[in-house]
Amino acid sequence: MDDLIKYAPDLLAGFLENVKLSLICAVLALVLGTILVSMRVSPTPVLRGAGTVYVNIVRNTPLTLVLAFSSLGLSDTIGLAFSATPSTNSFWLVVFGLSAYTATFVCEALRAGINTVPLGQAEAARAIGLTFLQSLRLIILPQAFRTVVAPLGSVMIAMIKNTTVAIAGGYLMESAFVMRDTFDDTGVSIPIFVGLVIAFMAVTLPVGFVTSRLASKLAVAR
Amino acid sequence: MSTNILFDAPGPRGRLRNNILTLLSVVILASAAYYVYARFDAKGQWEGEIWKPFLDVSTWTEYIIPGLLGTLKAAGISAVCALVFGAIFGLARLSDHRWVRGVAGAVVETFRAIPLLLLIFFLFFLAPSVFGGGDYTLIALVAGLTLYNGSVLAEIVRAGVRAVPSGQAEAAQAIGLRKSQVMRLVLLPQAVTAMMPAIVSQLVVLLKDTALGYIIAYVDLLNMGFKLIPAVHFGSLIPAAIVIGVIYVGLNMSLSTLATWLERRTRRSNRTSAAPIAPPGAVGEPETSGAGTLL
To answer: In this protein, which residues make up the domain named ABC transmembrane type-1 (chain B) (predicted)?
Structure first.
């Protein structure tokens, strides 16, 4: 217990980095995922193909490889830099990799959601003369988003937990690294581990609770 | 579905617009691809020299294949242990005894909520202080993967048994089968068929997560490809990343294809009265109105 109290400020600072990563990646992954799903249902075969290829490749690559590649490959070898400060640069590299990875899962969830919208809805939208983008924006996506609130919640929870893998992208300030660092100093400490787990649960459990409540509240009556 | 319902069969103007859109997207995608190509080219990443190691048999026999075997070993052991863990805890969650249900539920929910890497780190540092010195990378990785994926599989097992219509259990009880017989002879055989696709999807997740072993220096495909090959053949980091990326994607996509095939087969099958259950976090099946689906 003493270890937990002694290292609490470091661990808290690390955990706040996870929260920061989660918030930024959530926004970016949702935006990018929506763009990807629009590509995958678009009338342009080239865009459909590009979307499918991107999703299938990135989704099937381990996140550790995605992040290690962003850091060692894209940044160190190719020279992609978001900032001159190394720690800020690796923060944004992790954001880049994690968002690119999570977006594919957002895309798949949304696509499954579009599949649950009955055909008649799209036919009716076409019948009253809405264009492709209008029917997508006004009829299909609003209904699709409602059915995917709960799955999107699961994607977000997985993403929050995945922020701990930031270590593979060379970002050495978040809680998994801090925990490893403390274990290196003082040996294994059960209170520190349990404390961090509780901190993560304090974020993920409400997300799960709120999204499942929202899902049942927003469910489309059919 | 042969024609997409989101847009009409385009007329002359629509075709023109679609062609313009296609042209535009080709231009945008091609210029993006060219930009990436040029950035890589500027750093000399397409030079034959750094790709040469991958034409060499020794690179494959000394690094890539041993690494792949390391990945498959960790994935195989974890998959077997996770399936056993999942079966035990999944069935325990369906127990008639409240305390068994409660304990199993608490274990499953806890391990599902812990970030996997934290769990692996914890086990990795816990093992030496309990069992003394030694190499615990494989054990920590396998134990972490087992506890996490086993908990997810436990939920799949529970959902699978629940997906069997209640009439099946009632009929089994009516002909005088005991509780264990109902489970063993009637519910489980049907549940296993229904949950097969979800189990295989979870095994894809497990296989991908073995790459976390890279962080605790377990000798797997990622470690071999990303740490050792670039160290031996200087400058081969990007080619190595592309080669091992292709291997990972190939492995996972073939497993995913198997899952899709299993799901189709389950849907057609008359060996189970339960519909295939959705993998955790997936969108529920659309109500079949006979109208088909959009995509």
So the answer is: 68-259
Residue A142, phi then psi, degrees to nearest 5:
-55, -40
Residues of A in contact with B7 (CB under 8 A): 43, 126, 131-132
Does this model's pTM top 0.95? My answer is no
Pick the CATH number of A19-172 from 3.30.70.260, 1.10.10.10, 1.10.3720.10, 3.40.50.720: 1.10.3720.10
A119 closest CA partner among B42, B114, B290: B290
Any chain B CB within 8 A of the CB of A129? no
Sign of CA dihedral A41, A42, A45, A51: negative
What's B188's domain CATH number?
1.10.3720.10
Identity at A186, one-letter amino acid code: T
Query: Is residue B191 a part of any domain in this protein?
Result: yes
Tell me the nearest-neighbour CA distance from B66 into chain A, angstroms. 18
As given in the structure block, the two tokens for residue B287 are 């109500």
**B289 and A123 Cβ atoms separated by less than 8 Å:** no
Quick: pLDDT tens for B196-251.
889 998 999 999 999 999 999 898 999 888 888 888 888 788 888 899 999 999 99
Q: Looking at beta carbons, which residues of chain B come within 8 Å of A140?
A: 6, 294
Cβ–Cβ contact A38 with B under 8 A: no
B171: containing domain: 50-268
CB proximity A154 to B under 8 Å: yes
B30-87 pLDDT, tens digit per residue, is 999 999 898 888 888 888 788 888 888 888 888 889 999 999 999 999 999 999 999 9
Residue type, B20: I
Domain count, chain B: 1
Question: A212 in contact with B at a CB cutoff of 8 Å?
Answer: no
In a domain, B33, yes or no: no
Centroid of chain to Cα A137 = 23
Instruction: Give domain limits for chain A.
Output: 19-172
Chain B interface disruption, residue of A57, A148, A193, A222, most B CBs within 10 A: A193
Is B276 part of a structural domain of the chain? no
Note whether residue B158 is domain-resident: yes
Which structure tokens are listed for B140? 């920590």
Measured between CA atoms, how close is A112 to chain B, in angstroms? 6
* Contact yes or no for B142/B78 (Cβ under 8 A): yes
Q: What is the mean pLDDT of residues A23-30?
A: 96
Please answer yes or no on whether A179 and B26 come within 8 Å at the CB atom: no
Query: How confident is the model over A77-127, as pLDDT tens digits?
Result: 888 888 888 889 999 999 999 999 999 999 999 888 888 888 888 889 888
Q: ipTM of this model? A: 0.89
Residue of chain B whose Cα is closest to the Cα of A113: B283
Which of A75, A161, A211, A220 to probe the B interface (max B CBs under 10 A)? A161
CB contact under 8 A, B208 and A201: no
